[in-house]
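Dear colleague,

Thank you for sharing your sequence with our group. We've completed the structure prediction you requested, and as agreed, I am returning the results in plain text so they can be pasted directly into your records. Please verify that the sequence below matches your submission; if there's any discrepancy, let me know and we will rerun it promptly.
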Amino acid sequence: MTRIFSAAIMGLDARIIEVEVDLTPGLHVFNIVGLPDKAVEEAKERVGAAIKNTRLAPPRKNNQRLIINLAPADIKKEGPAYDLPIAVGYLLASKQISFNPESKIFVGELALDGKIRPISGALSIALMAKEEKINTLFVPKDNAKEAALVDN
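Please find the predicted structure tokens below.
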């Protein structure tokens, strides 16, 4: 199992969301659990296409069960900002990339070609990351100036 961190926007505040990725052999399944809305459910298609179009092995390529848990489960997960952490978590779990994801937050919507689209709430996420002493925040390039308004 692999764990990546992301964030949920709740009003003007942000909260850490754990994106847990469990990858096991078996008939192909790609499920997202943890109170996702329709946009989060659709991440399955965006993530799969983005990974395939960047010439990596997408979830459908091999017979494997991919379960994504967005925790805590009692917070409604809304919007496409979970695309990037789901993709990164899958790539780590499938050993296509390797790095230590601790103390890092990932947010971003994926285009089908693998480009990363901007998200809402980058400033709130950066403020929360600073409060939580998380030292690295991965945001879309178009959100970089907004997130950089927060020192460190």
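Summary note from our side: The mean pLDDT is 96.

Kind regards,
the structure core
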